[in-house]
């Protein structure tokens, strides 16, 4: 195990060394073409700040690619249904919310659409009646950890507790076991994947985000962001609670205003909104039981 960890550390260091070399080459090329910028960057402090900014931007781009596509073979992670179909699924994260989730349920009921709610365990405990209504109206539930934490930074015992405790509180209130997992912010690791496999739960990510957690996002922006991009097989991410920093609350009225138009817009494009369970029927991941399940790694 130590040799594997050393190899990972070496790869990590080499990645940043390579990134530093690329940034240096880019800076030299930029300075060669722009005299004003070259003069500014000759100042070591300015050059250092520029390098840091470029590094952060690069890492954010890599993180975005990681969430939407992954870096390796990941048959156990579901990001979409079949692109050959005309089916899409709506999912809502970070709830339940006593303020916004009932409004979303009202709209879904009126439009006769089913969705999946990835719920934070601590919120489930606080608002059990909202959870019961979700189940009563035929929607699916998923586990979004107990405290909306960053998976890769957790100790293994804490990670296990976050998942198990959420499963327990959902089952206690609904008498149903959540068959789906979704890591907060889409950030997962090998331990999370192995735990999901052992528990028999599917990891669900997404293909389109409404980015409706931003307080500055308008209803029209949310609608166009989803409807314009949507095609068959999409798993659409929306939020009934939470904000950029807080795991609960936030202003989600823009989504409430946008949701009817999102549903109408998708249907006008010939897309049918179906439960996540049905969407995944044509997108089965491959069996990973042959992989090493060393969950102490």
Structure description:
By secondary structure, the protein is α/β, with parallel strands linked by helices. The chain folds into two domains: 2-68; 77-282, TIM Barrel, CATH 3.20.20.370. The chain has helices at residues 2-33, 35-41, 44-68, 101-111, 121-126, 128-136, 156-174, 190-199, 219-227, 253-268, 276-279, and strands at 77-78, 87-95, 116-119, 140-143, 180-181, 202-204, 208-209, 235-239, 272-273. Strands 1, 2, 3, 4, 5, 6, 7, 8 and 9 form a nine-stranded parallel beta sheet that branches. Strand 5 (180-181), helix 8 (190-199) and strand 6 (202-204) form a beta-alpha-beta unit. It is globular and about 45 Å long. Residues 1-14 and 284-297 have low confidence and may be disordered.
How is the topology of this model organized?
Elements lengths: L1 H32 L1 H7 L2 H25 L8 E2 L8 E9 L5 H11 L4 E4 L1 H6 L1 H9 L3 E4 L12 H19 L5 E2 L8 H10 L2 E3 L3 E2 L9 H9 L7 E5 L13 H16 L3 E2 L2 H4 L18
Parallel strand pairs: 1-6, 2-3, 2-8, 2-9, 3-4, 4-5, 5-6, 7-8
Radius of gyration, Cα only, in angstroms?
Answer: 22 Å
Distance between the termini: 7 Å
Number of domains: 2
CATH superfamily of the largest domain: Glycoside hydrolase/deacetylase
- Overall shape: it is globular
- Could you name the ranges where pLDDT drops below 50 across 5 or more consecutive residues? 1-14, 284-297
How many H/I helical runs?
11
Average pLDDT confidence is 82
Order of helices and strands: HHHEEHEHHEHEHEEHEHEH
Amount of beta strand: 5-15%
Instruction: Quickly give the structural class.
Output: alpha/beta
- What is the CATH fold-level name of the largest domain? TIM Barrel
**How many extended strands?**
9
The CATH class of the largest domain is: Alpha Beta
Q: Helical proportion?
A: 40-55%
For the biggest sheet, the summary is: 9 strands, parallel
């Amino acid at each position: 195990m130590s040799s594997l960890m050393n190899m990972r550390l070496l790869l990590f260091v080499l990645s940043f060394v390579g990134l530093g070399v690329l940034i240096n080459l880019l800076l030299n090329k930029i300075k060669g073409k722009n005299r004003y910028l070259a003069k500014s960057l000759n100042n070591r402090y300015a050059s250092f700040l520029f390098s840091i900014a470029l590094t952060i931007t690069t890492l954010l781009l890599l993180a975005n690619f990681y969430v939407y596509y992954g870096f390796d073979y990941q048959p156990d992670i579901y990001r979409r249904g079949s692109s050959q179909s005309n089916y899409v699924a709506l999912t809502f994260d970070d709830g339940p919310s006593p303020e916004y989730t009932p409004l979303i349920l009202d709209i879904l009921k009126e439009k006769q659409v089913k969705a999946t709610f990835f719920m934070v365990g601590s919120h489930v405990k606080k608002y059990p009646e909202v959870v019961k209504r979700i189940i009563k109206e035929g929607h699916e539930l998923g586990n979004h950890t107990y405290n909306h934490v960053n998976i890769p930074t957790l100790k293994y015992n804490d990670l296990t507790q976050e998942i198990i405790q959420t499963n327990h509180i959902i089952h206690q209130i609904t008498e149903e076991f959540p068959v789906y997992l979704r890591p907060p912010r889409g950030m997962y690791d090998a331990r999370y994947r192995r735990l999901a496999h052992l528990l028999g739960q599917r990891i669900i990510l997404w293909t389109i985000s409404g980015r409706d957690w931003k307080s500055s996002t308008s209803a029209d922006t949310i609608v166009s962001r989803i409807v314009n991009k949507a095609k068959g097989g999409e798993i659409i991410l929306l939020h009934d609670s939470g904000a950029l920093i807080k795991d609960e609350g936030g202003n989600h009225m823009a989504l409430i205003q946008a949701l009817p138009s999102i549903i109408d817009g998708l249907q006008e494009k010939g897309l049918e909104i179906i439960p996540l369970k049905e969407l995944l029927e044509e997108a089965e991941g491959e069996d990973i039981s042959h992989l090493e399940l060393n969950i102490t790694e």
